Amino acid sequence: MRLLSLLHRWVGAIGGLLLALIGVSGALLVWRNQLTFVPHAGDPVRADPAILARIADRLADGPQPVDRITFAGDGLGVHQLVFADGSGAYISQAGETVARWSTSWQRPELWLFDLHHHLLLGDMGEAITGVAGLVGLVFVATGIILWWRTRTRFRLRLWPASMKPGAIVHHHRDLGVGAAPLLLVSLLTGVLMVFPALGGSWLAETAPRPPKLAAIRAEGPPRDVTPLFRYAATRFPGAEIRRLQWPRKAGQPITLRLRQPFEWTPNGRTFLYVDPATLRVVGVADPATRGTAASIREKLYPVHAAKTGGLVWKLAISLSGIAMALLGSLSVYAFWRTRSNIRRARRRKGRH
Predict the structure, then answer these.
(1) Is the dihedral of CA 312, 313, 317, 318 positive or negative?
(2) How confident is the model at residue 178 (pLDDT cuts 50, 70, 90)?
(3) How many C-beta atoms surround the C-beta of residue 263 within 10 A?
(4) 10, 114, 245, 316 - which has most CB atoms within 10 Å?
């Protein structure tokens, strides 16, 4: 038990701040739409395919090449436009540009998302967050074991009784046990999104890939996607049109992303792949036909990000993030303060 305690403390002292960063950024991202401060963000959503098609056509005909459009929905009443050079804009549902940015650093909700998911380091950062999540799961398991010896003194409180190391340690153990169920859910779903193979071969099933097309004439994007949107509404009745992605390379299709009523993911996992030269549908990915594994995997993100479950689950996941931030930061403070106190005591003893 002593070795387990020593390992728990040292690893926490080194990685605690990273977990705290992931926790606080995750808690804020639960309220991402509410923190997107732009005009018309609270407008009711109009999901008429004909209106969305006209917006898409107008934006595609603009002076800058467009990468993708994410249409208003999921509690946000503006369209998000991303250009091929990485800049972007928010567009009202009436077609008015209400905000623009040349880099994601100009929009707090965008860089906060990148911080939480990639630590601002791209794919390498995503792998680091996955490893941090695994470490967090080990912390929860070992923390419960270590707490058991002091269970008779359990007292759940948000903040330590004092900032002395002993009080922080007791607070750390009790808060960790109290928040353990929520921490397990948020950490496990996060880890499985980064490392799906850890859920078994069936959960790591390869997602459908868009078909490769023969060389396409070097033309701009089609100027009228109304027939495509009309077809999508007929092919998937009741589905929301969520995102239109233009090809990034030659030979790639246009991707139209939809959300069917049974899907939890805000932007859905239903895809239409379209030849950009002819608007002919060349592939379909329908999650209704993909079985149990795909259905479970689709629910990882909405559970992790509180995109389902209403206000109650939003508050629960927010508390999980706050608890992780407190557990990580205070453990680092208490550990290194204790080490400092020990060194000072040894120096005083040496002088005597």
Answers:
(1) negative
(2) very high
(3) 21
(4) 245
Upper half-sphere CA count for residue 193 (Cβ side, 13 Å): 21
* All residues at 6 or more sequence positions from 30 whose CB lies less than 8 Å from its CB, including other chains: 305, 306, 314, 317, 318, 321
* C-alpha span between 284 and 156 (Å, rounded): 51
SS3 157: coil
CA 28 to mean position of chain CA atoms = 11
pLDDT tens sequence across 305-350: 999 999 999 999 999 999 999 998 888 888 777 666 666 666 666 6
Q: What is the pLDDT of residue 220?
A: 52
The neighbour count for residue 349, using CB atoms within 10 Å, is 8
pLDDT at 218: 43
**Cα of 169 vs its chain's centroid, Å:** 30
User: What order of strands is seen across the sheet that includes strand 88-92?
Assistant: 97-101, 88-92, 78-83, 66-70, 240-245, 254-259, 270-274, 281-285
Is the pTM value of this prediction over 0.85? yes
Non-local CB neighbours of 151 within 8 Å, separated by 6+ positions: none
If you compute the radius of gyration of the chain from its CA atoms, what whole number of angstroms results?
24
Kindly report the backbone phi and psi dihedral angles of residue 205, in degrees, each rounded to the nearest multiple of 5, phi listed first: -50, 135
Tens-digit pLDDT profile for residues 22-80: 999 999 999 999 999 999 999 999 888 999 999 999 988 888 899 999 999 988 999 99
- Residues paired with residue 73 on neighbouring β-strands, in sequence order: 76
Task: Give the separation between CA 25 and CA 44, rounded to whole angstroms.
Answer: 27
- How many CB atoms lie under 10 A from the CB of residue 157? 11
The C-alpha atoms of residue 144 and residue 21 are separated, in whole angstroms, by 22
Q: Is 352 helix (H, G, I), strand (E, B) or coil?
A: coil
> What mean pLDDT value characterizes the chain?
87
Q: Is the dihedral of CA 129, 132, 134, 139 positive or negative?
A: negative
Instruction: Phi first, then psi: give them for residue 73, nearest 5 degrees.
Output: 160, 180
Distance CA 104, CA 107 (A): 5
Helices and strands (DSSP H and E) totals, the chain: 8, 8
Q: Is residue 266 scored above 50 in pLDDT?
A: yes
